[in-house]
Amino acid sequence: QVQLVESGGGLVQAGGSLRLSCRASIRTFGGTDMGWFRQAPGKEREFVAQIIWTGQSTYYADSVKGRFTISRDNSKNTVYLQMNSLKPEDTAVYYCAADPGRNPYYRASSYRYWGQGTQVTVSS
Question: Is 34:88 a contact under the CB 8 Å cutoff?
C-alpha cells in the first residue's frame, strides 16, 4: 500500500524558514519523480516544485524560485522542501505528490499518489 506522509509545517513569521518532509512507502521510490503542491483557502491546488528520480533536475513555480529548494534522499525514501524568506502569500496546505508518469509535472492531475498535506501559515 502506497502512503505519503508530510511533516514540518507550522506557524512562522514573514521572512522565516521551514523545512517540509515527505516520507514515502513506495517500493520504487528511487525511480519515482516527486513534487510539492500547495492549496490556499478558496484557491486551486498549485504547483510548487518537482524533482526527478535522480535528483539531478528540479523545477519550480516562478512564485517560489530563489526561495524554495526541493531535494530528496532516496536512501530514506524522503523528499524535502526547504522554504526560506517566507511570505504571507505562501500560507497554504502543502501536499507531497508522487509519480506524474509522462504527464506534465506542473499539473496536479498528473500525479498518481498524494499525501494528506501539512499546514504552513506565515504571519505578517
Answer: no
